[in-house]
Design brief:
The chain is mostly beta strands and 341 residues long. It folds into two domains: 225 residues, Jelly Rolls (Sandwich); 49 residues, no CATH class. It has two helices and 24 strands. Strands 3, 4, 6, 7, 8, 9, 11, 17, 18, 19 and 21 form an eleven-stranded mixed β-sheet that branches. Strands 5, 10, 12, 13, 14, 15, 16 and 20 form an eight-stranded antiparallel β-sheet that branches. It starts with 8 loop residues before the first strand and ends with a strand.
Length: 341
């Protein structure tokens, strides 16, 4: 298990010709200990799995197979038995087994923080390793605490990480949105591990979620940012403007991954080292738009500048501005939110 010591983030200045920009950079290890403020982040909730049981103050169990295999034709029956879920040596284990139970041929486990913890916006981070094998479908994801925009997917879904066990070198980060299940939309490209690495090793999976962007990271590497979505239940930024809770599970079979085959080795053990949630602290973070950064610094228009904020004030509308650095009052650092058309 990787040592989970403390780390610090620092604001540093980077030069682009005669101009400079402040950026938050990691000055220590990638993973921070609980209670540590990380520059623009402050730890708001975590489970380090240091005890000997599932914390009832953090998690509830989902039991059964749902309607139609949770709507995906999944094959497992979720239980709360120690054979399927337990904490040991600082790790949460979610174990899928091939066995006859309550009329099903597979068992596994699913826990969620619904009713115990939810949060709107911030950074949500997991360190985990996953099993390999066709039919395994491990996932770290988030759903709305209250479905104020009606049923799925109108109220949204954020998948921090999911994996097809038949492809251990690839993970996906996705947002689901739209109107009804017949008109569901999703967006998100995959991340492929380099140099023969895979989900069978421990990795840190994270999303950073703001009012106008959701960004996905693996081991601190940004691989995707989504800024466009919609809901039939309300105007943008719905549905991703409500508190979401956390879910961890390992499904077996279903539409997304297919059924296990004769090569799939059981049991399959999904191991989670920690789960952490961070809130914004002042100054607010800026959604990273790599390809437009230099354009902004040079005062060129790229997309639409929606609003500006400085340490002494609140967000103000500067829609359509083309020279953002001319807006900042003297002596004050300015931050910007960008929306691409």
């Amino acid at each position: 298990m990787m040592h989970r010591g403390s780390c610090t983030w620092a604001w540093r200045s980077f030069s682009f010709g005669k101009r400079s920009v402040l950026a938050c950079v990691l000055a220590g290890g990638l993973v921070c200990g609980p209670g540590v403020a990380r520059g623009a982040w402050q730890l708001s909730w975590s489970d380090e799995f240091e005890g000997s049981s599932i914390a009832a103050t953090n998690w509830t169990f989902e039991i059964g197979n749902g309607r139609g295999g949770w709507g995906n034709n999944e094959l497992e029956y979720y239980t709360s038995r120690p054979q399927n879920i337990y904490v040991s040596n600082g790790l949460l284990h979610i174990v899928a087994r091939k066995e006859s139970y309550s009329g099903f041929n597979y068992t596994s486990a699913k826990i969620r923080s619904h009713g115990l913890f939810s949060q709107k916006y911030g950074r949500f981070e997991f360190r985990a390793r996953l099993p390999e094998g066709k039919g395994y479908w491990p996932a770290l994801w988030m759903m709305p605490e209250d479905s104020v925009y009606r049923g799925w997917p109108a109220s949204g879904e954020i998948d921090v990480m999911e994996n097809r066990g038949s492809d251990p070198a690839t993970v996906l980060g996705t947002v689901h949105f739209g109107s009804s299940s017949r008109h569901a939309q999703s967006s998100g490209p995959p991340y492929r591990f380099p140099n023969g690495d895979s989900v069978t090793n421990f990795h840190v999976y994270a999303v950073e979620w703001s009012e106008t962007a959701v960004s996905w990271y693996v081991d601190g590497n940004l691989y995707e940012t989504q800024k466009s979505w919609w809901s039939s239940g309300g105007p943008y930024p719905a549905p991703f403007d409500q508190p979401f809770y956390i879910i961890m599970n390992m499904a077996v079979g279903g539409n997304f991954v297919g059924s296990p085959d004769g090569v799939t080795a059981f049991p399959g053990d999904m191991q989670v080292d920690y789960v952490r949630a961070y809130k914004w602290v002042n100054p607010p973070p800026v959604p990273v738009i790599q390809k437009s950064a230099s354009n902004l610094l040079l005062g060129r228009r790229y997309g639409v500048l929606q609003s500006a904020h400085n340490a002494a004030g609140s967000w103000s509308d500067v829609t359509g501005a083309t020279s953002p650095f001319s807006i900042a009052p003297a002596g004050q650092q300015q931050f910007y939110r960008i929306h691409e058309p």
